[in-house]
């Protein structure tokens, strides 16, 4: 799992699973603690995701909301969307709609 900070965006790539949740959780906490801005988590280059990882995203969204901030998931491919639906966590996270192609 590679994590990169780009402005207010946290860009993730690789396998997002139980082995990388601690690292992602810490990166999200760091971004949201003492921050007045919203955070975007870019999952475009995430190759696989498991239910533990989706729970980290849902928990971060909830904690951000309680603090008056917002977490948006960007670039959710079919595998990520499927796992969010299967885990029933889709209702707890904000998924950015794909831009309409011209």
From TrEMBL:
Q: Which residues form a coiled coil?
A: none
CDD domains the record matches: STAS_anti-anti-sigma_factors (cd07043)
Task: Please state every residue range assigned to the domain named STAS.
Answer: 10-102
- Among the Pfam families in the record, one is STAS_2
Report the protein name in the record: STAS domain-containing protein
Q: Origin organism of this chain? A: Nocardioides agariphilus
């Amino acid at each position: 799992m590679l994590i990169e900070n780009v402005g207010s965006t946290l860009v993730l790539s690789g396998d997002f699973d139980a082995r990388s949740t601690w690292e992602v959780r810490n990166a999200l906490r760091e971004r949201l603690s003492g921050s007045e801005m919203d955070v975007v988590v870019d999952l475009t280059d995430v190759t696989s995701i498991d239910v533990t990882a989706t729970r980290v995203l849902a928990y971060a969204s909830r904690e951000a909301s309680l603090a008056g901030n917002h977490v948006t998931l960007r670039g959710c491919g079919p595998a990520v969307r499927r796992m969010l639906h299967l885990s029933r966590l889709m209702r707890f996270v904000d998924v950015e709609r794909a831009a309409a192609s011209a």
